[in-house]
Amino acid sequence: MKNVALSLTPAKCELLDNILNEFDEEIYIKSERVLKIFRGNGNLASDYLDLLVKLNLVILVGQVEGIDLPAMVGKQAGVDMFISEGGFKRRYALGKLEEDAGKTIEDIQNENLDLQEKLIKNEQIISKLEQELLTAKNKNVKYFWLQICLVLFGVTIMILLRFYP
Known about the structure:
Distance between the termini: 120 Å
Helix content: 55-70%
Strand order of the largest sheet: 1-3-2
Low-confidence stretches: 1-5
Mean pLDDT: 87
Shape: rod-shaped
Number of strands: 3
Structural class: mainly alpha
Number of helices: 6
Largest sheet: 3 strands, antiparallel
């Protein structure tokens, strides 16, 4: 009953969520409903309830010394929101993600903002380079036509000099 230091796993998170989901719209439930989740293992059910008490998610009503489970379990304010936000399974997954990435969600969000700023700067640079390329192409086209005009002018002068010496 005093083993509150449970190391969380996905299966344990699911059991904790199952206890909290058992309340549905009720504020109090009988301990027998929690006991069903643990297939009659009162000691294990008690350990999980102790953890939920420590986390201020439930209260125990009718606790009797020497008996593993109280008569009833009551949910604390905020449990519905906790469950609607994904409960223990979601928090475990987020914690695992942070652990795997070696970064916190806040670090990842900050990195994302930095990358978005770099993207905007790079898009501006690309736009400027595209404009310069277009300008250079226009200059090359003008230069090309100037060369053609000069060649034609030269050819014309040669023809004229040949016929009119």
